[in-house]
């Protein structure tokens, strides 16, 4: 029988999960949990493959589980799943350390990257070449943005909290909706359609790739996770969003708008079966680890204000209810 | 008896058979091997094969068939009317786990068979006990399931015993039968060669099995995908633009185009350089240069592709952009088909060079002599005599390189970017089918969405596409093959 | 035979120079072409080798430093009050004190031990001094104490791993200017490091741990090693070698020498070349479906990785083996058949040895590919963070392990810049591994090479 | 075309080692052997003569089924060895070739040592019980092929490093070492000097005491010297077959006569 | 060993096409050619005779530097073509070989069509200005080698699908098509029937009108028929060299006599 905990899933959660796994392995008599990466979706799929020792115990996820995943789980006999929120991940905008300073609003991003924008109430194809064209307060630097590719959960947050928000903020949403006869979905789709003329570059790789690309294109702006930025502050200069500088504090307080919760999902049927599983998840959400002064926070995770509730839920093994 | 031990015994019997067979063959002709049809060792071989092969085949068949036979027996006991097939499947999975668990439980707790029969799901915390020995059960154990599990366990146990006895019997019978067949005129060589030939055939069928496996593991999810996303759009749409909230455009053509374009440029780099390098190594280089340069170049094939990717991203991409794309007015993207193609070409050089070098080297010297004797220069001989003679092997090498090019991900991701585009401009960012298979499969989208499932459809499409290319290549090689001697 | 002999006059002799030492225009042209061709060949080799040198220098340049690691000397008093509050020296009890406890102990001890050695810690807050040590250091100390509880109460002097940034400072990755911008290290810390170096309390040493340690989390790049990955790769390569080579050669022999020329053979042939073009991740899909879900083998285990890589490597070996078999002249086969050898004997005794160089080349290329591949491992759970060493085979084949390319990939995706050198270091190890693996093949290939 | 009845009248049925009836060979479309009937006797040397390209080698290769290895070759008709059809489904060509050895027209030594070249056949047929016996076979075969003196000091050097004539003799030695019942020799002396030729002819004569030998040769003199029976091929046809003496002194077919007297080729 | 002075007395210096002095050839340790001095005349057929393995092919290959391609072969001494040392550093072996053509002992047709085999040399030396000229050269060469009738309908079939003797003639045609000044022929008729041999000999005789031909043969008769000069090799030594008539009628060396009369080999 398997005697180590196996987890899989999000590459965003991966660094935190490894930090915890390492500390767990070193302080407990259990073997160190195995943490696979491979993406949130793939991790949840693996979780839902069934019950038994050749299926994983925990799926890490940078987005909430989907109904289709829950259905798949149920189909395979995985009926009780525990949803554990471990904290928040801030998403920041940064450029080369020696470049200009930027203070963005979501509307700037929308007007810089959207395929169609609204100028004087008219819908027209976006031809802004520099950030100054978008907003006279921004430097007259060519627009070149490295945004996460559509495989990344981060892209969903970027679309929603930056582009869509910018779309609404700038009033373009209304015009789009009007143009589509009030169809909000169509309007949203128009909002999130990005330029394809090479100004907005999708990155399918990791933040290290974005960093390397910024190194090769000094005038570019990239999208990063807060923890990545904090580890590379000597190379990157962070931009403010709506006047707020991203930090664990500003994100925890909700001031900084672009962030998302991180989760892991536990297969309850494996609790008590896989040695160390219960201990591991309790250790993960303990104050020592996930608290505001724990190693996760020092690595850049925004600690969850409702951690106590999570700890209690984990102790009681409360499975998640239906998605609201 | 464990399978490993069983195997060991069977092979041991085989070895004994070999020795006995060899001895008996020699004895049958009073020690004069010339009177035998085959070599004495071949008689030994035949006994070995007769002992081992049928027993192993039986073992394989048994291992494949026994679980489903037992399953079928047990299934009857948990089947009740009105229960759906999938629910029964689930129950059967539980039965399997519990019956395995009972074994572990007995071993861990020193239980006897009687204790086990006495055990009922009601009277103790069975789930907890099973958990303690590392067996996960989804819910509390139902009595029917528990009975079925016990039934299964006893079936499995007796099946194991039967298996051991049966296989040893077959091995012994094979041994005895083969021994009786040993006579001076017994065609031992033919028999053992027939068996070896069957093994060779079997090996070549692994390729077919792999293909079947690949197609099967792709086809169901592909069908699932086409239920969610119209096939017409997949095959006919010219845009690739997946979205999170649905409404994605998943046209395959930009990806196929990117694949072809990148591979083409990569081959444009790898084939001439690789072929010329092979020619130089085989025909011009001194033995020393060759023995150093060839393994050195082969290192190129072993460098992890991520190194190439970073090389493309950091060095080649910006260089091409600054010195070619921008001055020529072909855009200012630092990731481009050209970048990825060039760098990938470097990686592929050894695939072309090493194999071609071996093949060129094995063209008989008399061909070279014939050409030199007519006053041809080395290069003329190479171009007009040696290369045509080596053509099939060279084509094989190029095909191998092309295959790697099509299957490569990391270099494309970092060198060519992630944007799917239909463009002729080699300095534009594009992407390939393979890259998108990886990224869609490992992405954050939910599994049952078209955005993820498209990976399977892409895999299958690429498979069919390359199959076409390979048929074409086979046809060309057949047409131009020249056989020396 | 009635060829009219009247026509037999040879073709008119072409105008040729009378001297061998002078060349006519055509010969000059041809010789120039010859030279050009030869130069192309040499240039091709040079290009390939130049590319190799470029890649290797960048890898070596970035990665050589990962074989050295910075250690700081620290004197710690192992306070029994803290480390064994119950005082019964029972390891089980003592293990309740976590690395956090040990960490605190070290953090307190470190400034004191610096001052005791005469190094001024002025201007550096206590917490920052403690941060100069690796987060791995408490674990090292804890293991040491748990292994030898008698140390309790003593003051031990101890070379502890230094933090990645301090290590970076000694390797010129971190500078005073970058430290000013960096939130993770301060110029004052670096100055303190300078003073420690002067006092011989900080030094760079050869880093065996890089080869033997398991992977570490992002918080401690300085402790990340390749031990588990090397074992995992070795196990997988063993499986690949022992399965792919014989099966590949056997399949090639069948197809090239025995298969009747018919549709089925064509089908198999096309099939194999097509398998070579199947992206490696698809083999991962196959492996997941067949070996894990159907056959029930464990995920993240070298056995599954080895099997998947075997299937992936087979086409490479088959294609090169077939090409090599094809290149053996038929007269050799005839000669063997003519003295009454069977087809099988002619192949195994004569053709196969002559095809050996090509087979070995295929093996070299195939193993290189198998050793460097990550994508298929992603789907079978080997792209993972694994800290525990798998045991010896056969059991070890079924336990979780990592692999070298996976480790390279993991290192490159991590945020801390200290992982950059480790990624390159891992590549160096991978290449050395590859070279060791191929050495025998390269030697054998040279031995079997002959012309006829 | 000579008629079959005559063949039978020449020889008693008992002595027939190989009998061919209505043999046709096609290379793709090319009809290389046309309707050949011939009986080859035991303990006899039979010479095949005829102009280059007339099908001698082709027919020779039919007798031990070496034509099986040429994909485009197609054989019809019947060839019997000791009364058994060699193209029967049940016949194992390997066994056939062990009994019917062959020396090819182009010398084709293995890229192995001289020793291993000769030892190969003896090894795979298990003709020697030990090293001493094997050494003996090798020496005897090389002596028989008049090569021993030249190579006895270099048995471990590769067979491919020999001169053309030496290679040819090596191939003869290799074939002789397997002790076949019938030995097919395709121009075995073409690269040999008269003395070596004489020695090989002597070998052939010795072999004839026990076995049957078929030899292809372009030298009428050689045919006359070594053979008892001669077959004359022309453009794929077996034009005439009979006692060597008869063929050379009183050929019955005008083509034979023309060839022997040097008028057609 | 015969002495060099005599050689010079036989022939006027002007007629000397090739002159060899103190030529030694080693294959590794083996001393295959020992101290050979010989002058080969222009417009003359010279025959090399001698027992198999005595070094005839080896010496022949020295003359157009084909031995360069054997890694273990080492040559010492001097060979001059028209007074120029062919082993001089400045000499381009390619140009040399265009002037000194060679037919190898073992037929080695290219894996190409019969047409391309013959056209090969003419093409690389640019002997034909157009297709018609090339066709003409090919027909002429094939006729010369007595192969035209047999292959004229199958010029596009591979040369490797020919019979042994046909391949040999193909190689002769291939060499003749490049019009060399000196043609080295290593046993060119070994696989040919008498008629074809006669035709090839006729070709040789024609070639002699303008060029120099060296032929290796095991047939004393052939040497006597076609050559004006004969050189007898034995165990790597050039034992005797002189007018063919003299050599065959009044050999001066006992070894020559022994060989000719069939006593040594
Ligand atoms: N490549 C080689 N390596 C080693 N020895 C060789 C090589 N070629 C020839 N020899 C040896 O050199 C000697 C002379 O060989 P050469 O081929 O010149 O003989 P030859 O006179 O042409 O004989 P033949 O009439 O049999 O062709 C022989 O003893 C032969 O074994
Ligand atoms: N592999 C082949 N493919 C096609 N045609 C062939 C092949 N082998 C031989 N032939 C043709 O068949 C005919 C007979 O060839 P064969 O080799 O039997 O002649 P041969 O009598 O041995 O001549 P030689 O004395 O020249 O060796 C020839 O016309 C030849 O061109
Ligand atoms: Mg022939
Ligand atoms: Mg010779
Ligand atoms: O790997 P992610 O699912 O977090 O993008």
UniProtKB/TrEMBL annotation, chain B:
Its main location: membrane. It comes from the Bacteria. Keywords: Cell inner membrane, Cell membrane, Membrane, Phosphate transport, Transmembrane, Transmembrane helix, Transport. PROSITE patterns: ABC_TM1 (PS50928). Residues 256-473 form the ABC transmembrane type-1 domain. SUPFAM superfamilies: MetI-like (SSF161098). It is found in: Cell inner membrane; Cell membrane. Gene3D superfamilies: MetI-like (1.10.3720.10). The chain crosses the membrane at residues 6-25, 46-65, 160-178, 198-220, 260-284, 296-316, 336-355, 385-406, 453-477. One of its GO terms (biological process) is phosphate ion transport. It is a multi-pass membrane protein. InterPro entries: MetI-like, MetI-like_sf, Phosphate_PstC, PstC_N. Belongs to the binding-protein-dependent transport system permease family. CysTW subfamily. Part of the binding-protein-dependent transport system for phosphate; probably responsible for the translocation of the substrate across the membrane. This is Phosphate transport system permease protein. It comes from Paracoccus homiensis.
TrEMBL record, chain C:
It comes from Paracoccus homiensis. It is a multi-pass membrane protein. It is found in: Cell inner membrane; Cell membrane. One of its GO terms (biological process) is phosphate ion transmembrane transport. One of its GO terms (cellular component) is plasma membrane. Residues 230-441 form the ABC transmembrane type-1 domain. The lineage of its organism: Bacteria, Pseudomonadati, Pseudomonadota, Alphaproteobacteria, Rhodobacterales. Its main location: membrane. SUPFAM superfamilies: MetI-like. Residues 1-27 are annotated as: Disordered. It holds the Pfam family DUF3333. Belongs to the binding-protein-dependent transport system permease family. CysTW subfamily. Gene3D superfamilies: MetI-like. Residues 1-17 have a biased composition (Low complexity). The chain crosses the membrane at residues 39-60, 234-255, 275-297, 303-325, 351-372, 423-444. This is Phosphate transport system permease protein PstA. Keywords: Cell membrane, Membrane, Transmembrane, Transmembrane helix, Transport. NCBIfam families: 3a0107s02c. GO terms for molecular function: phosphate transmembrane transporter activity.
UniProtKB/TrEMBL annotation, chains D, E:
It comes from the Bacteria. PROSITE patterns: ABC_TRANSPORTER_1, ABC_TRANSPORTER_2. GO terms for molecular function: ATP binding; ATP hydrolysis activity; phosphate transmembrane transporter activity. One of its GO terms (cellular component) is plasma membrane. GO terms for biological process: phosphate ion transmembrane transport. Its main location: membrane. Residues 18-260 form the ABC transporter domain. The keyword Cell membrane applies. It is a peripheral membrane protein. Keywords: ATP-binding, Cell membrane, Membrane, Nucleotide-binding, Phosphate transport, Translocase, Transport. SUPFAM superfamilies: P-loop containing nucleoside triphosphate hydrolases. Pfam families: ABC_tran (PF00005). It is found in: Cell inner membrane. Gene3D superfamilies: P-loop containing nucleotide triphosphate hydrolases. PANTHER family: ABC TRANSPORTER I FAMILY MEMBER 17. Part of the ABC transporter complex PstSACB involved in phosphate import. Responsible for energy coupling to the transport system. This is Phosphate ABC transporter ATP-binding protein, PhoT family. It comes from Paracoccus homiensis.
């Amino acid at each position: 029988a398997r005697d180590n905990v196996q987890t899989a899933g999000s590459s965003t959660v991966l660094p935190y999960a490894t930090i915890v796994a390492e500390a767990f392995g070193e302080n407990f008599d259990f073997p160190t949990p195995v943490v696979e990466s491979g993406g949130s979706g793939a991790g949840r799929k693996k979780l839902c493959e069934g019950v038994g020792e050749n299926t994983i115990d925990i799926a890490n996820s940078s987005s909430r589980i989907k109904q289709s995943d829950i259905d798949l789980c149920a189909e395979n006999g995985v009926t009780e799943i525990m949803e554990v929120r471990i904290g928040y991940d801030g998403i920041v905008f940064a450029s080369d350390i020696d470049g200009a300073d930027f203070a963005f609003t979501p509307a700037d991003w929308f007007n810089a990257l959207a395929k169609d924008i609204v100028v004087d109430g008219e819908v027209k194809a976006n031809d802004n070449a520099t950030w100054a064209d978008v907003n006279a307060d921004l430097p007259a630097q060519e627009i070149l943005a490295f945004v996460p590719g559509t495989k990344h959960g981060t892209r969903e947050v970027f679309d929603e909290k930056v582009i869509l928000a910018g779309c609404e903020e700038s009033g373009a949403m209304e015009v789009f909706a009007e143009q589509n006869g009030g169809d909000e979905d169509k309007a949203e789709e128009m909002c999130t359609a990005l330029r394809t003329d090479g100004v907005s570059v999708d990155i399918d790789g990791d933040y290290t790739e974005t960093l390397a690309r910024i190194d090769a294109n000094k005038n570019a702006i990239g999208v990063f996770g807060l923890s990545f930025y904090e580890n590379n502050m000597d190379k990157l200069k962070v931009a403010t969003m709506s006047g707020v500088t991203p930090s664990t504090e500003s994100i925890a307080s909700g001031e900084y708008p672009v962030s998302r919760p991180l989760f892991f999902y536990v297969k309850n049927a494996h609790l008590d079966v896989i040695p160390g599983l219960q201990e591991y998840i309790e250790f993960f959400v303990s104050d020592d680890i996930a608290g505001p002064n724990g190693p996760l926070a020092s690595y850049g995770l925004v600690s969850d204000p409702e951690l106590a509730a999570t700890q209690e839920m984990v102790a009681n093994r409360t499975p998640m209810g239906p998605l609201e | 008896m464990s399978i490993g031990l069983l195997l060991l015994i069977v092979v041991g019997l085989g070895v004994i058979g070999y020795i006995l067979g060899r001895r008996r063959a020699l004895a049958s002709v009073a020690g004069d091997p010339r009177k035998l049809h085959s070599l004495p060792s071949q008689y030994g071989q035949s006994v070995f094969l007769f002992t081992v092969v049928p027993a192993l085949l039986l073992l394989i068949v048994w291992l494949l068939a026994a679980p489903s036979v037992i399953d079928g027996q047990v299934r009857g006991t948990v089947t009740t009317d009105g229960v759906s097939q999938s629910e029964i499947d689930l129950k059967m999975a539980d039965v399997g786990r519990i019956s395995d668990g009972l074994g572990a439980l007995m071993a861990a707790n020193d239980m006897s068979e009687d204790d086990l029969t006495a055990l009922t799901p009601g009277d103790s915390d069975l789930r907890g006990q099973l958990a303690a020995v590392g067996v996960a059960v989804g819910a509390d154990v139902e009595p029917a399931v528990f009975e079925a599990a016990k039934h299964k366990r006893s079936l499995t146990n007796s099946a194991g015993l039967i298996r051991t006895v049966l296989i040893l019997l077959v091995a012994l019978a094979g041994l005895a039968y083969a021994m009786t067949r040993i006579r001076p005129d017994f065609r031992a060589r033919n028999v053992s060669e027939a068996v070896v030939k069957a093994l060779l055939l079997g090996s070549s069928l692994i390729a077919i099995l792999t293909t079947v496996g690949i197609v099967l593991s792709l086809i169901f999810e592909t069908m699932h995908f086409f239920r969610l996303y119209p096939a017409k759009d997949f095959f006919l749409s010219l845009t690739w633009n997946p979205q999170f909230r649905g409404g994605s455009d998943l046209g395959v053509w930009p990806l196929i185009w990117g694949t072809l374009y990148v591979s083409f440029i990569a081959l444009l780099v790898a084939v001439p350089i690789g072929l010329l390098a092979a020619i130089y190594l085989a025909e011009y280089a001194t033995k020393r240069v060759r023995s150093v340069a060839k393994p050195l170049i082969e290192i190129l094939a072993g460098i992890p592709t991520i190194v190439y990717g970073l090389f493309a991203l950091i060095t080649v991409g910006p260089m091409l952009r600054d010195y070619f794309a921008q001055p020529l007015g072909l855009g200012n993207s630092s990731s481009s088909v050209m970048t990825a193609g060039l760098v990938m070409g470097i990686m592929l050089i050894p695939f072309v060079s090493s194999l071609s070098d071996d093949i060129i080297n094995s063209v008989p010297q008399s061909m070279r002599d014939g050409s030199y004797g007519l006053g041809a220069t080395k290069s003329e001989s190479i171009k007009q005599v040696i290369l045509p003679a080596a053509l099939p092997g060279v084509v094989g090498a190029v095909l191998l390189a092309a295959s790697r090019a099509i299957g490569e991900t990391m270099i494309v991701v970092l060198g060519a970017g992630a944007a799917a585009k239909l463009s002729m401009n080699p300095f534009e960012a594009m992407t390939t089918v393979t890259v998108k298979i990886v990224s869609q499969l490992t992405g954050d989208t939910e599994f049952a969405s078209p955005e993820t499932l498209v990976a399977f459809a892409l895999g299958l499409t690429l498979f069919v596409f390359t199959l076409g290319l390979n048929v074409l290549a086979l046809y060309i090689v057949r047409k131009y093959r020249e056989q020396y001697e | 035979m009635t060829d009219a002999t009247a026509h037999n006059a040879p073709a008119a002799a072409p105008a040729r120079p009378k001297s061998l030492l002078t060349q006519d225009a055509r010969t000059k042209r041809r010789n120039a072409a010859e030279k050009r061709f030869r130069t192309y060949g040499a240039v091709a080799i040079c290009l390939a080798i130049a590319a190799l040198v470029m890649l290797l220098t960048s890898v070596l340049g970035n990665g050589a430093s990962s074989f050295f690691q910075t250690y700081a000397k620290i004197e710690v008093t192992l306070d029994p009050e803290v480390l064994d509050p119950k005082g019964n020296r029972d390891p089980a009890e003592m293990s309740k004190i976590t690395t956090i406890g040990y960490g605190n102990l070290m953090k307190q001890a470190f400034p004191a031990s610096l001052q005791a050695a005469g190094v001024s810690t002025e201007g550096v807050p206590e917490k920052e001094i403690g941060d100069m040590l690796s987060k791995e250091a408490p674990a090292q100390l804890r293991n040491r104490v748990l292994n030898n509880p008698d140390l309790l109460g003593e003051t031990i002097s101890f070379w502890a791993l230094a933090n990645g940034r301090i290590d970076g400072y000694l390797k010129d990755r971190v500078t005073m200017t970058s430290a000013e911008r960096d939130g993770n290290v301060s110029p004052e810390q670096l100055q303190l490091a300078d003073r420690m170096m002067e006092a011989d309390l900080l030094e760079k040493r050869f880093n065996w741990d890089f080869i033997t340690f398991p992977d570490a989390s992002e918080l401690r790049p300085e402790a990340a090693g390749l031990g588990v990955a090397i074992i995992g790769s070795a196990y997988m390569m063993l499986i690949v070698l022992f399965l792919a080579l014989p099966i590949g050669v056997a399949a090639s022999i069948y197809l090239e020498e025995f298969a009747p020329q018919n549709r089925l053979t064509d089908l198999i042939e096309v099939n194999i070349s097509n398998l070579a073009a199947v992206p490696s991740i698809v083999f991962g899909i196959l492996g997941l479906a067949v070996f894990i879900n159907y056959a029930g083998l464990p995920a993240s285990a070298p056995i599954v990785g080895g099997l998947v890589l075997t299937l992936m490597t087979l086409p490479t070996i088959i294609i090169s083996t077939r090409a090599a078999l094809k290149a053996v002249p038929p007269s050799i086969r005839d000669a063997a058949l003519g003295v009454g050898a069977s087809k099988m004997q002619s192949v195994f005794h004569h053709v196969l040895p002559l095809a050996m160089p090509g087979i070995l080349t295929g093996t070299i290329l195939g193993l290189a590919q198998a050793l460097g591949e990550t994508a298929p491992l992603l789907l079978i759970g080997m792209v993972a963070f694994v800290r525990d060493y798998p045991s010896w085979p056969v059991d070890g084949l079924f336990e979780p392990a990592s692999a070298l390319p996976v480790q390279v990939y993991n290192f490159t995706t991590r945020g801390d810049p200290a992982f950059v050198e480790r990624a390159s270091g891992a590549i160096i190890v991978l290449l050395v591994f590859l070279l060791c693996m191929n050495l025998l093949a390269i030697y054998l290939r040279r031995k079997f090479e002959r012309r006829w | 075309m000579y008629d079959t009845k005559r063949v039978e009248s020449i020889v008693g049925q008992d002595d027939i080692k190989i009998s061919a009836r209505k043999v046709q060979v096609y290379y793709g479309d090319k009809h290389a052997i046309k309707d050949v009937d011939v009986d080859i006797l035991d303990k006899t040397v039979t010479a095949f003569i005829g102009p280059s390209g007339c099908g001698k080698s082709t027919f020779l290769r039919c007798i031990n089924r070496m034509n099986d290895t040429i994909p485009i070759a197609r054989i019809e008709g019947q060839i019997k060895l000791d009364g058994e059809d060699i193209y029967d489904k049940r016949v194992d060509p390997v066994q056939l070739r062990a009994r019917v050895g062959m020396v090819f027209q182009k010398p084709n030594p293995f890229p192995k040592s001289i020793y291993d070249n000769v030892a190969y056949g003896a090894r795979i047929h298990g003709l020697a019980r030990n090293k001493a016996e094997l050494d003996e076979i090798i020496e005897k075969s090389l002596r028989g092929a008049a090569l021993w003196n030249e190579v006895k000091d270099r048995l471990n050097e590769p067979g491919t490093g020999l001169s053309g004539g030496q290679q040819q003799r090596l191939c003869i030695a290799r074939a002789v070492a397997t002790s076949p019942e019938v030995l097919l020799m395709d121009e075995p002396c073409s690269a040999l000097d008269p003395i070596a030729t004489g020695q090989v002819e002597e070998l052939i004569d010795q072999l004839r005491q026990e076995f049957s030998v078929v030899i292809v040769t372009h030298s009428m003199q050689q045919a006359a010297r070594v053979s008892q029976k001669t077959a004359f091929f022309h453009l794929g046809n077996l034009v005439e077959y009979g006692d060597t003496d008869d063929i050379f002194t009183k050929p019955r077919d005008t083509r034979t006569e023309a060839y022997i007297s040097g008028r057609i080729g």
